[in-house]
Structures are given as C-alpha cells and as structure tokens.
Amino acid sequence: MLEQRIEKHFIDSADLKYQAALALSKPIAQATQAILASVTSGGKVLACGNGGSAADAQHFAAEFVGRYERERPELGAIALTTDSSILTAIANDYDFNVIFSKQVRALGVAGDVLLAISTSGNSGNIIAAIEAAHARDMIVVALTGKGGGKIGALLRETDVHICVPHDRTARIQEVHLLTLHCICDGVDAQLLGDQENV
Description:
Layout: H1 2-39, E1 45-48, H2 52-65, E2 77-79, H3 84-93, H4 101-107, E3 113-117, H5 124-135, E4 139-145, H6 149-154, E5 160-164, H7 169-192
Parallel strand pairs: 1-2, 1-3, 3-4, 4-5
C-alpha cells in the first residue's frame, strides 16, 4: 500500500513535468535570457520565496554564486531569505509583508532581476517585493502555480511568468526546482557553450 502510494507520487510528478515541458519551455528560455543579460552587464539576481520556495531561492543563489554543473566565473545572486537578523527585525519593527520589499529597495538597482517564487501566486510579501522591483526598474521572473494568482495580474510585459499548470503545492515545487535547474543550465550553456550532460 505504502509502496504504491510512493510510486504514484513519482508517476504524478513525471506526468506533470512531461505535460509542462512544452508550455513552460518558452517562458523558461525568456527567463534565462533576462537573467543572463543582467548578470553579464554587472547586474544580479535577488531571489525570494516562503517556506519551500525560500529553500528554492537559496538553492538557486548557491548554484549561481558557486556553480551549477560546470566551472565558470561566479554570477551575482542573493537569496533574500537567509539573513535571520534582517528578516526578524523587519517583521518585528514593520510587518512580515515587507521583509523582501525593503531588501529589494536596499539592494536592487535598474537592470537587476527579482526571482519571485510563490506556488499560490498570492503571497503578500512576494507581491510587495515585485512592486518594489518595478519601482527600481528591475525585471521580474515569477515562478507560480495554481493559475498565477494575484502575481499573474501584477506582472508587466517585460517580466517573465512561469506558471506551473497544477494546483498541488508539492507538484508545483517539484517543477519550480526543475525550472531553476533549467535556468542555471541555460545560462551556463550561453556562457560556456553547449555540452552534453556527463
């Protein structure tokens, strides 16, 4: 019984990834190009999310600053989810909904990219961060699911929306992680040339 349940998770995840590949390949390519243009012009990526999405933001920043699969020069990325003193000070002194937007206003400049991750598309602090990024003339790459929520309506034509066509949080997060790996691989391929996976 438990083994069948586990197998179903694998099958459902694989099915969604297969179905989403065609729908998401274009916006993922657009996100890759936007991020590449930023970091090769001296810009950086500011990444944020809550819960599992916070972990994804940190995962992305680690692979950008360190490396993904190949050696390359360091690329600028900061996870806005990692400094407990900043997060708790802002949440305590102001409001939890501004924990990311205040950091965007402090660190973001025109030409930077905000990587905004929200499975529901309705996270208040992510919405505030997007508004702050727009005020700084930053491009937003939004990873959502569940139809995109309020974030979908907030994005500009110059932004990129990668909306996983699913309603279950776990499945959306699994595709978000694959999406971030695709972006890292795409940036590396553009910088270093295509290479078959080893």
